[in-house]
Amino acid sequence: MKKTVKSRRAAAIGRDLMLAPLVAMMRLPLMAADARKGQSWGVEATQAVNEKTVAMVEGAFAAQLALLQSASRFWPEVFSGRTPSLFNGIAVERSISAALKPASRAVKANFRRLSTKS
């Protein structure tokens, strides 16, 4: 994969994750309204916790899968004369990117959803 494609993907993930504080601020009035109704675990709070849990599990699974794929390419990379991705940092880069992608999607989707509620 070319560096420009990787850079664009990383920038897109970073851009989406930068929406997280804004999403949190957009959620606060909805959660406060639930609390005023006496629902400490209202719809928005429950959805927030659920989405974060799902994104964390998906991210951990994706990171492990990316590392497993890099490990499976170890010997083919060695025999082809290339430095194995496990040694040159590419495996870690792929793993981090894979781990952040689910959180990025969730934040972006929440921003869209909460923007329409305002």
UniProtKB/TrEMBL annotation:
The keyword Signal applies. Keywords: Signal. Residues 1-32 form the signal peptide. The keyword Signal applies. This is Uncharacterized protein. It comes from Mesorhizobium ventifaucium.
